[in-house]
Amino acid sequence: MTPNLPKWIFYHGTDIRLYPFYNRVESCFNCRKVGHRTDVCPMPRKQRCRRCGEEHPTPGQGETPACTPRCIVCNGAHNTGSSNCKYRFIKKAPPTPQSKQEAQEPSSNIHRNPSHSGSSSRRSPSSRDHSASLPPLGNSSNQQQRRESRSPSHTRRSGSRSAKRRGSRCRSHSRRPRSRSAQRRDSRPSSHSRSKSARRSPSVSRSSSRGPGEASKSVAWQRGAPASLLFSDSQVRELAKENSALKAQISAQQSQIAKLTSYIQSLEAKIDRALSIDKQTTPTSSETQDAHPNPLAPNPALSPVPQLQNANKRKAATPTASLHADADITTKVTTAVTAAISTLKSDLNAEIETRFNAIHQTIRETTTSFAVLKSSTEAALADFSVQLAIHRTPSNSRQTPAPTPIT
To answer: Biased-composition ranges for Low complexity (predicted)?
Structure first.
């Protein structure tokens, strides 16, 4: 028979499409973990989206979803259990030669002759120790005790017999191993009955192998997440909140820096405009003479008409004292305005420098706090990933305790 299944089956004159059944991986939409369903999840119920797992209601039928789907099984960008998921079915590992041998040993023990069970167990104790249906043989100390318990009776019997019956005593010695094997066969149950009892009641054998002080083991997902993982989750949430608060503070500081920069630019424009206006309004010597006439200077309208005899003489010039006074006033005004502007500029520069230093100091402190926060977050996430990997280790990988020897 071919190992591959056909795609179509002809049944009662009709071709029927064949869809083989495979066990799917159980996934929980509440805690977003595999191994159990949502209705048996021990974690508290949350209003989570079945597509992406975020805390918002699932979009209804016919609505256009706004979130990106996330698979619980493989963490891919598709819905959980979708046909695009390659890991939605439970895949068994291929059988190893050791597992095949363990599966074949119980059937071979059933068909084996029970009269030769003792001799075969003595010949191959390793196969009996590794068998799942047969308990291991007793140790050498138990066999030594049995031999010692038989030796006094053997000496008594040998002492009571006479020398004439040595041949019969030798024959009894030759028959004794068979009697011992028969006693062992009678004292121990057969392999067939033992394998039947092991197949019928595996839970009873497991419970009997437990000690009196051991409690019954429960499934890992029923116990819920350990306290260390819950504590690390709370730490991660607190770090995320602090990170968002620092981001908001940095954005506020950046807006303040932009406002200060615009304010400084406007002040520089005003200063340049004031300097240009001062240069335009600075009076010259002729303008000051027109604006402030000298009373000592002769007025041509009021002065008498010069006589012809004085026509060739030189006219009286403007006094130099008034000219020097006008020049001094102009220089004083210019120096005063320049000094005021320079002091204003120095004050503004000092204030701007202090504010910039404060802002840079705050940014530097924020950067250092971000570095510390990043290192602590990475350490917390590393611990969380290690604990999560330990928590997600399947219980089947743990080695089963060796069965106790039957004395």
So the answer is: 111-124, 132-144, 200-210
